[in-house]
Amino acid sequence: MTLMTLFGCIFIAFGPATVIFLVAVARDHFHVIIMISSAFFWLLSLLISSIWWTIVSPLKTQLAFGVAFSVLFQELFRYAFFVLIKKAEDSELVSLASKSSGLFKHKTAFVSGLGYGIMSGLFAMVNILADITGPGAPGLNGESPQFLIISALLTCAFVLLNTFWGIIWFESCSEKKYGYLVVVFGSHLFVSLMTLLNNKESYLGSMLSAYLVLVVMAVLAFKVAGGSLQNLHSIFARKLPSDMRSEDVTVVSPTT
């Protein structure tokens, strides 16, 4: 039973990210490197957050302060990674890669966000996954038996949110649309603070806020990446079979 729960939570938390990686990233060695580098920058933000939490004593008693500074450091290191990518664009390797694809800028932002999200999700779930292996079962000591599934769903949401935040953040920095920076930081802080409701087993509030923001960020990321309703229509519109497109259609009028 514990193994079934373990693999179920793993698939829920990291299933979408794994599919995205295999379909869109794994075959491109350059963007695999970008994703790993982005994950490393998230680790650096975690290191700075831990040092800050140790130095500043109020953070040890007020969890909300720790969450706020953790979000701040994550976004600062997201910006630092953007600056690093911009400086690397002058290199020959990046120049060749960018010329090979017109979507290079957006894909780099997407991949960096995915790396950020996967590393964030791994650290969010590692202790929970270790406890799931047993012995025991959730809820024996009066805790909610839904805690594990809620944690997996929130981790999935944060992985995808970081992916969308990466796209929006890179676009706002590239085009100097600083309003998007406020949106990213504000939504990140809001969703992170809402997860504190889980301490009171108010799972509905944290889940609804996370997935509502996820939908909004997905639409915004699609927009800043150049997407439109016309693009969606062209993708999903049904195309005529090739034999019908090549066939000449003639209209014969009746003779009198």
SSE layout and pairing:
Elements: H1 2-25, H2 29-55, H3 58-61, H4 63-88, H5 92-99, H6 104-132, H7 147-175, H8 178-194, H9 203-224, H10 229-236, H11 242-246
Helix pairs in contact: 1-6, 1-7, 2-4, 2-6, 4-8, 6-7, 7-8, 7-9, 8-9
Family: Belongs to the APH-1 family.
Keywords: Membrane, Notch signaling pathway, Transmembrane, Transmembrane helix
Organism: Paramuricea clavata
Would you mind describing this structure in some detail?
By secondary structure, the chain is mainly α. The chain has eleven helices and no strands. Residues 239-256 have low confidence and may be disordered.
Write a brief caption for the model.
The chain is mainly alpha-helical and about 260 residues long. It contains 11 helices and no strands. It has one domain.
Shape: globular
- What does the main sheet amount to? none
Order of secondary-structure elements: HHHHHHHHHHH
Rg result: 23 Å
* Distance between the first and last residues' Cα: 82 Å
Indicate the proportion of strand residues.
under 5%
Q: Uncertain spans, ≥5 residues at pLDDT below 50?
A: 239-256
DSSP summary, beta strand count: 0
Q: How many DSSP helices? A: 11
Mean model confidence by pLDDT:
81
Number of discrete domains: 1
Structural class: mainly alpha
Looking at how many chains there are and whether they match, the oligomeric state comes to: single chain
**Helix content percent band:** over 70%
Main location: membrane
Pfam family, one: Aph-1
GO cellular component, one term: membrane
Membrane topology: Multi-pass membrane protein
